[in-house]
Design brief:
The complex is a heterotrimer of chains A (about 525), B (about 280) and C (about 325).
Chain A: E1 5-14, E2 17-27, E3 32-36, H1 43-48, E4 58-61, E5 64-67, E6 70-71, H2 77-83, E7 88-91, H3 95-98, H4 105-115, H5 122-132, H6 138-141, H7 151-163, E8 169-173, H8 181-196, E9 200-205, H9 208-214, E10 217-222, E11 225-230, H10 232-237, H11 242-250, E12 279-290, E13 298-309, E14 313-317, H12 324-331, E15 339-344, E16 347-348, H13 354-363, E17 364-367, H14 381-388, H15 392-401, H16 406-409, H17 418-431, E18 436-440, H18 448-465, E19 468-473, H19 476-482, E20 485-490, E21 493-499, H20 500-505, H21 510-518, H22 522-530
Parallel strand pairs in A: 3-9, 3-10, 7-8, 8-9, 14-19, 14-20, 17-18, 18-19
Antiparallel strand pairs in A: 1-2, 1-4, 1-5, 5-6, 10-11, 12-13, 12-15, 15-16, 20-21
Chain B: H1 18-36, H2 73-108, H3 110-125, H4 129-140, H5 144-171, H6 174-181, H7 186-222, H8 234-242, H9 250-281
Helix pairs in contact in B: 1-2, 1-9, 2-3, 2-5, 2-7, 2-9, 3-5, 4-5, 5-7, 6-7, 7-8, 7-9, 8-9
Chain C: H1 15-48, H2 53-57, H3 65-74, H4 81-93, E1 99-100, E2 105-106, H5 107-140, H6 145-160, H7 163-177, H8 190-219, H9 222-228, H10 234-271, H11 277-286, H12 290-318
Antiparallel strand pairs in C: 1-2
Classes of the chains: A alpha/beta (about 525), B mainly alpha (about 280), C mainly alpha (about 325).
C-alpha cells in the first residue's frame, strides 16, 4: 500500500526566491513524522503545500506530491476544498490568532462539520469534540470567545476544530510554543493519543526535545532543505550532518552545564573559576498584591525571601502568573512591596531617594525579553550603549565582548536581528558597570542556535567581569544550564530553593517534581549524555 | 466636509512614489513663492479692474482669464495663496501649540487633572467642526482672524488627545524605564526620550491636517466668513465665480484647482512623513 | 442550525442583556453630561459678548420696552448670575431655545421648518455613502497592485477637493452645460442628486479606504488560514469571517461621518441655494442672532453626541474582546 503522504523533490518559491528546495518525505497512516528546524527553514511552507495554502504568489513544483494516491499538483480549488479539513486538518501556529476572535468557540468547531456535512445534529458533536480534546465544561466553553480561554484551552479548542471533520492527517504547526511546560505536556499527550488512535500526524517544531519525544521519524530542515532524516534516537545520538550536531549541542540542559553551547566562544570550555562574593541583594519576606476591580486580588509575591551574591547566577523559574517577573522588578526598585524589604548593598530601596537612588539604580541593570522595546527608536546601536557609558573606548570594548561588529552598531537598532539586539542590550547593561543584571526571559523569543550564542555571551561576560545575574525564565533547561542556585515560584510563593543541580535533578517539592517531569526531551537528554562535545 | 477637527486617524500603508513627492515639493514651492512674494509670479495688480476686458476667457494675456470686473484671475489666484494658506498654517500652528500644552498637562497632572481636562475637551469636541467656527464668527464677527481662531479651537482637542496618549505611551515604555535604570535624572529622561518620541506623531498628524484646514478655511471664505473683500482669497473668488457659473467656467475652475493642488501636495508630504515616522517606530 | 435551538430553557432576562443596557445607559449619561457642558459654555459666551445680555439676546434689534421686559423676565436677567444660569439651563432642558428677534419667531419654529430639507439631504448622503463605499471597497480589494494604487490615489485626490468646489463643478457641468439636473433651489428628488454627491465624496473616499484596508488586513490574519484549512469557500470566508473584522474600524468612523455631514450640509446648502438649516445658520451668524445660532449649534451637538454614544455602544457590542470591563 502506498503511504498516506508522498512528497518528492518539492520546491516552493515566492517571487522566484525558493523557500523550499527539493524536499522529499513520506507519512504512513498512523505515523508521527516531524519537520524540525529554525525560523526560515521552510518547514511550515512544506507542510502547507499539502493543503494548497502556501500563500499568495507561491509557486509549488514537485516530482510527486500525493495524498492517498491523489495527485495534489493538479487539484482545482473545489477539489482542494474537499480535502482541506475533511482529509487533512491543520492546527496552525498561534492558537489565539487562529480562532476568529469575533466568533464563539462552538461556531469555529462547527464550521468544518457544516462545511463537509459530517453529522446531522451539529451541537452534540461540537460538545463531543471539545470534550474529546480535553476541554472541560464544553457547554460553557462552546458559548465563549477565544480570548476568554487560557492558552492551553485555546490550543485544545483549535485541535478540536482541526479534528472535527475526522481527517486522516493532522498537521500541527508549533502546537505547544508559548505554552507553560505542564500545559505543553498535556497538549502533547493529546496529540500522541490522536496518533495512537490512527490519525497520521505531521508535526512541525523548532523544539528538538518535543520532536524527539513524539515523532516516529524526523526530518531536520535548514534553509529550505532536509539536511538529515531518520528515527529520532538515531538522528539524536548519531547526527551525521554538522548542522544537526550544532543544533543538538545548542540545546541548554543540565548535561551541558559549564560548557559553551554555540561553539563560538572557546574560553567557555575552560574550567569555571568564579567564587561567589558577598551578599548584594537581600529580599526579606516581601508581599505584593494587585487588585483589579471586580476580581479577586492577584498575589504576585507572598512572603518571598532570598539573597543574591556577587558574581553568582540566581535562577528564578515558574510558569506564567507565578510572580517571578514582579519579584525581578522589585529588585530594581521599580515595584515597591506592600510589606517586607528589598535591600541592595544593605540599604532598602524605600530608604533611597534622589541622586543616591539614581546612583544605586545604575548598579542593577535589566535585560528584557523584547530588547527592541527597551531601545529609544531614534537611536543607533552605538548611541544606545553610549547613553549608559560616555567613554567611547569602553563602549567599543563592550561591543567586542558581546560580539557585535563595528559595521552593525551605527545603524538603528531595529535593523539588527533578534540575537544581535539582545547582544546590544547586554552591552548596554554592562556599560553601566553594574553589580547585578536582572534578565527577564532574555532568550525566550530566540531560535535555539541564537539562544545558545546569547547564553554563551552572558556566561562569558560573567566570568570576565564578575557581574551577578538574576535569571528569570520559564525554561527549566535554560535555567539548569546557567544558574548556580534556583528559586522555584508558584502563585507568588517560593516552593523550593537551593543549588540548581540539587533542586532540578532531585526535586523534593511535588510542584517542582511536576515541572521537571513536564519538560520534554527524555530522548534528547539521553542522547546528549552520550554525544561527544563539539 | 472634512475639517481638521473631525479628520479620523489617517490611513496607513500608503506608499507614495518618489515622483509624487517631488511633484508635491514643486507645488508647495510655487505656493510658497505665491504666498510670500506673489510679485515674482505676476507683475499684474490683482485688484486692477480693466473694465474694457471683463469676463475674458483664458488667453495669452490673461492665463486664467478675467472676472466680471476685468481683474486678471492669474494675478488674483497667485495673490490669493497668501490668505488661504496663512489661515490654514496659522490655525494648525495654534492648534499644535495648544494641543501639545494641554495634552502634556493632561498626561502629567495626575488623575483629577486628566479627568477635568479630558471632559472639557469632550465639550469642545461635541460641536461638529465648522459649526464651532460659525459660533466663533457669531461672537467675534467674521474675518480671517476669527476663522483662524475658530479652526484652531476646533482642532485643539484632537491634537491634545493624541499628545496625551503619546506621552502616556512613551512614559510607560520599556526604553524610558531603561533610561531611568541608567541613573539619569527624571527631567533629562523627559527631555531626551519622552518629548521627542511623543511629539513626532503629532507633527506628522499636523501636516496631514494642514490640508484639511486649508479646505475648511476656503469653505469659510466661500460662505463669507473669511477675509473681507476685495482681498483675493481662493474661497471668496469661488463664491464670486459661482454667480457667473452659468456664463463663464474659468472663474470657478482655477481657484478650485489651486486649492486642490495645494491640499494634495500637503497631504502627500504629510503621509510621506507619517510613513517615515512609522517605519522608524515599528 | 435547528440543533442549536433544541435546548429549551425557561425565558428570563439574561445578564448579558442587562450589561448591554447598562453600557448604553452609561454612554448616554456621559453624552448628557457633555451637552450640559456645551450649554454652560454658550451661557458664558453670551456673558462675554460686548453689550448687555439683553442686547445680545435681542440681536441688537430695535425692540419695544415691552419686549425687552419680557426677555428680562424670561431669562431672569435682573437676578444674580447664578439664578440666570439655572434659568438658562432650565429653559434649554425643557427644549425652549428662546426667540429669534431677527426673524420674530421662536427658534424651534424657525429650525423646525427648515430641518426636514436638511435631514433629507443628510439621509440621501448617508445612503449614498454606505452603498458606494461597500461596493468600491469590495471591487478595490483585488489582488493586483496597480489597481490598489489607483484606488488609493483617487481617494487621496477626492479628499483634497473642497466639497463646495466639487458642488460648483457638478453644477457647472451637469446643470449649466448638460442641463441634466436643476440648477438651484429645486425641491424635488432630482435637486437632491448633485448636493448629495458633493457631500458624500469625502466620506465615501475615507470609508472606502478604511473598509478596503480592513479587508486586506484581515485576509492576512492567522484565523483566515485556519478557516481556509477547514475547506470553506472564499465567499463563506468573507461573509462569515472577514467582513465583520473589516467593518469594525468603520463603526468608529460613523461618528466622524455624522459630524462631517452636519458641518458639510451647511456649506453645500449654500452652494446649491437649497433651503435648510445651513442657510438659516449662516444668516443668523451674519445678523449675530445668538438665540438662533446657539439653538442650531446645540441641536447639532445633541445629534452628534448621541450618535457617538450609540456608536461607542455598538462597537462594544460588535467586538467581544472589548466587553471584559
Amino acid at each position: 500500500m502506498s503511504p498516506l503522504v508522498r512528497v518528492r523533490d518539492l520546491v516552493v518559491a515566492f517571487g522566484g526566491r525558493p523557500a523550499v528546495r527539493g524536499v522529499s518525505f513520506d507519512v504512513e497512516r498512523g505515523q508521527v513524522v516531524a519537520l524540525v528546524g529554525e525560523s526560515g527553514s521552510g518547514k511550515s511552507v512544506t507542510a502547507r503545500s499539502l493543503l494548497g495554502l502556501c500563500g499568495r504568489g507561491a509557486v509549488v513544483e514537485a516530482d510527486e506530491l500525493a495524498f492517498d494516491g491523489l495527485d495534489l499538483r493538479s487539484l482545482g480549488e473545489r477539489q482542494w476544498r474537499g480535502l482541506r479539513g475533511r482529509r487533512v486538518g491543520l492546527v496552525a501556529q498561534d492558537a489565539l490568532g487562529s480562532l476568529d476572535p469575533l466568533r464563539r468557540v462552538g461556531a469555529e468547531v462547527a464550521e468544518p462539520l457544516r462545511e463537509h456535512r459530517i453529522v446531522d445534529r451539529v451541537r452534540p458533536e461540537v460538545l463531543r469534540l471539545l470534550a474529546d480534546a480535553g476541554v472541560p465544561e464544553p457547554e460553557v466553553r462552546e458559548r465563549q470567545w477565544s480570548h476568554q480561554l487560557s492558552g492551553g484551552l485555546r490550543q485544545r479548542a483549535l485541535i478540536a476544530t482541526a479534528l472535527a471533520a475526522r481527517p486522516e492527517l493532522l498537521i500541527a504547526d508549533e502546537p505547544t510554543t508559548a505554552l507553560d511546560a505542564t500545559v505543553q505536556k498535556q497538549v502533547l499527550g493529546l496529540l500522541r493519543a490522536k496518533a495512537a488512535a490512527g490519525t497520521a500526524l505531521l508535526l512541525i517544531s523548532h523544539d528538538l526535545a518535543v520532536v524527539a519525544d513524539l515523532a516516529d521519524y524526523v526530518h531536520v530542515m535548514k534553509d529550505g532543505a532536509v539536511v538529515e532524516h531518520g528515527v529520532p534516537a538515531d538522528v539524536l545520538t548519531n547526527p551525521r550532518h554538522p548542522y544537526t550536531r550544532a543544533l543538538l549541542n545548542a540545546v541548554p540542559t543540565a548535561e551541558r552545564r559549564g560548557r559553551g553551547l554555540s561553539g563560538t566562544i572557546p574560553a567557555l570550555d575552560q574550567p569555571d573559576r568564579r567564587v561567589p562574593g558577598r551578599e548584594l541583594i537581600t529580599v526579606t519576606d516581601v508581599v505584593k498584591r494587585y487588585r483589579v476591580r471586580g476580581r479577586p486580588p492577584i498575589t504576585a509575591a507572598a512572603g518571598v525571601s532570598f539573597t543574591v551574591r556577587a558574581g553568582e547566577t540566581l535562577g528564578i523559574v515558574g510558569e506564567s502568573g507565578s510572580g517571578k517577573s514582579t519579584v525581578g522588578r522589585m529588585l530594581l526598585g521599580l515595584v515597591a512591596p506592600d510589606s517586607g524589604a528589598v535591600e541592595f548593598d544593605g540599604v532598602p530601596w524605600s530608604a533611597r531617594a534622589g541622586a543616591e537612588r539614581r546612583a544605586a539604580r545604575r548598579r542593577i541593570q535589566m535585560i528584557y525579553q523584547d530588547p527592541l522595546a527597551s531601545f529609544d527608536p531614534r537611536y543607533t546601536g552605538r548611541q544606545i550603549v553610549t547613553e549608559a557609558n560616555p567613554d567611547p573606548e569602553r563602549v567599543a570594548e563592550l561591543l567586542r565582548l558581546v560580539g557585535l561588529a563595528e559595521s552593525q552598531v551605527d545603524r538603528p537598532a531595529r535593523e539588527l536581528s533578534g540575537g544581535q539586539r539582545q547582544r546590544l542590550a547586554i552591552a548596554r547593561a554592562l556599560a553601566a558597570d553594574p553589580a547585578v543584571i536582572v534578565c527577564d526571559e532574555p532568550v525566550s523569543a530566540l531560535d535555539v542556535s541564537i539562544q545558545a550564542q546569547v547564553l554563551d555571551v552572558l556566561v562569558d561576560a560573567q566570568r570576565r567581569l564578575g557581574v551577578a545575574y538574576v535569571f528569570i525564565s520559564h525554561d527549566l533547561g535554560v535555567v539548569h544550564h546557567i544558574a548556580d542556585r534556583v528559586l522555584v515560584m508558584r502563585d507568588g510563593a517560593v516552593v523550593e530553593s537551593g543549588s540548581a543541580t540539587a533542586v532540578l535533578a532531585e526535586p523534593r517539592h511535588q510542584y517542582t517534581k511536576d515541572l521537571v517531569a513536564a519538560v520534554p526531551g527524555t530522548v534528547l537528554r539521553q542522547a546528549q549524555s552520550v554525544l561527544k562535545p563539539g | 466636509m472634512v475639517t481638521a477637527l473631525d479628520t479620523p486617524t489617517p490611513v496607513r500603508r500608503v506608499r507614495i512614489p518618489r515622483a509624487g513627492i517631488a511633484a508635491a515639493l514643486v507645488v508647495l514651492a510655487v505656493v510658497a513663492i505665491a504666498a510670500l512674494a506673489p510679485g515674482l509670479l505676476t507683475g499684474v495688480d490683482p485688484n486692477h479692474a480693466d473694465l474694457g476686458a471683463t469676463l475674458r476667457p483664458p488667453d495669452w494675456d490673461h492665463w486664467f482669464g478675467t472676472d466680471q470686473n476685468g481683474r486678471d484671475l492669474f494675478a488674483r489666484v497667485a495673490h490669493g495663496a497668501g490668505a488661504s494658506v496663512l489661515i490654514g498654517l496659522g490655525a494648525t500652528g495654534l492648534a499644535l501649540l495648544g494641543g501639545i500644552v494641554i495634552g502634556t498637562l493632561a498626561a502629567q497632572t495626575g488623575r483629577w487633572g486628566d479627568e477635568i481636562i479630558s471632559r472639557l475637551l469632550d465639550v469642545v469636541l461635541a460641536v461638529p467642526g465648522l459649526l464651532l467656527v460659525f459660533l466663533v464668527a457669531a461672537v467675534m464677527g467674521a474675518s480671517g482672524f476669527t476663522a483662524t481662531i475658530g479652526l484652531a479651537v476646533g482642532t485643539v482637542p484632537g491634537f491634545a488627545r493624541v499628545v496625551r496618549a503619546e506621552v502616556l505611551r512613551v512614559r510607560a515604555s520599556t526604553y524610558v524605564e531603561a533610561a531611568h535604570g541608567l541613573g539619569h535624572p527624571g527631567p533629562r529622561v523627559v527631555l531626551v526620550h519622552v518629548v521627542p518620541n511623543a511629539v513626532g506623531p503629532v507633527f506628522a498628524l499636523a501636516t496631514v491636517s494642514l490640508g484639511a484646514m486649508i479646505v475648511a478655511s476656503s469653505s469659510l471664505s466661500f460662505v463669507g466668513l473669511g477675509p473681507k473683500p476685495p482681498t483675493a482669497e481662493w474661497g471668496a473668488m469661488l463664491a464670486a465665480g459661482r454667480d457667473l457659473a452659468s456664463v463663464a467656467w474659468w472663474p470657478t475652475v482655477f481657484p478650485g484647482v489651486a486649492i486642490t493642488l495645494t491640499v494634495l501636495a500637503v497631504t502627500v508630504l504629510g503621509q510621506h512623513l507619517q510613513a517615515r515616522f512609522e517605519r522608524r517606530t515599528v | 442550525m435547528t440543533s442549536l435551538a433544541i435546548k429549551s430553557e425557561p425565558r428570563r432576562v439574561s445578564p448579558a442583556a442587562v450589561r448591554v443596557l447598562r453600557v448604553v445607559a452609561v454612554r448616554l449619561l456621559g453624552a448628557v453630561g457633555v451637552l450640559v457642558g456645551a450649554a454652560t459654555a454658550t451661557f458664558f459666551l453670551i456673558q462675554a459678548m460686548p453689550g448687555s445680555t439683553t442686547d445680545v439676546l435681542l440681536a441688537r434689534t430695535q425692540a419695544s420696552p415691552a419686549v425687552r421686559a419680557q426677555v428680562i423676565a424670561e431669562y431672569r436677567l435682573d437676578d444674580s448670575l447664578f439664578t440666570q444660569f439655572f434659568a438658562y439651563l432650565g429653559k434649554l432642558a425643557t427644549g425652549d431655545f428662546g426667540t429669534s428677534f431677527v426673524l420674530r419667531r421662536p427658534v424651534w419654529d424657525a429650525i423646525g421648518t427648515q430641518l426636514p430639507r436638511t435631514l433629507e439631504l443628510v439621509a440621501a448622503t448617508l445612503v449614498l455613502t454606505v452603498v458606494a463605499s461597500v461596493v468600491l471597497a469590495v471591487i478595490g480589494a483585488g489582488r493586483r497592485r496597480w489597481a490598489r494604487s489607483l484606488f488609493s490615489g483617487v481617494e487621496g485626490l477626492i479628499v483634497a477637493v473642497p466639497p463646495f468646489w466639487l458642488g460648483l463643478v457638478l453644477l457647472g457641468v451637469f446643470s449649466f452645460s448638460l442641463h441634466w439636473f436643476p440648477a438651484i433651489g429645486s425641491s424635488d428628488f432630482s435637486g437632491l442628486v448633485l448636493p448629495a454627491i458633493a457631500l458624500a465624496a469625502h466620506p465615501v473616499a475615507v470609508v472606502t479606504r478604511v473598509l478596503r484596508e480592513g479587508l486586506l488586513r484581515t485576509l492576512d490574519e492567522p484565523f483566515v488560514l485556519a478557516a481556509r484549512a477547514r475547506g470553506i469557500s472564499e465567499v463563506a470566508l468573507r461573509a462569515r469571517h472577514v467582513l465583520r473584522h473589516a467593518a469594525l474600524p468603520v463603526t468608529s468612523l460613523l461618528g466622524w461621518i455624522t459630524g462631517s455631514l452636519i458641518g458639510g450640509a451647511v456649506i453645500i446648502e449654500i452652494v446649491f441655494s437649497r433651503q435648510g438649516v445651513g442657510r438659516l445658520l449662516l444668516s443668523a451668524v451674519q445678523n449675530k442672532d445668538m438665540p438662533l445660532v446657539i439653538g442650531v449649534v446645540l441641536l447639532a451637538a445633541t445629534v452628534f453626541v448621541v450618535v457617538n454614544a450609540l456608536v461607542d455602544a455598538a462597537a462594544w457590542l460588535l467586538d467581544p474582546r472589548t466587553r471584559e470591563h
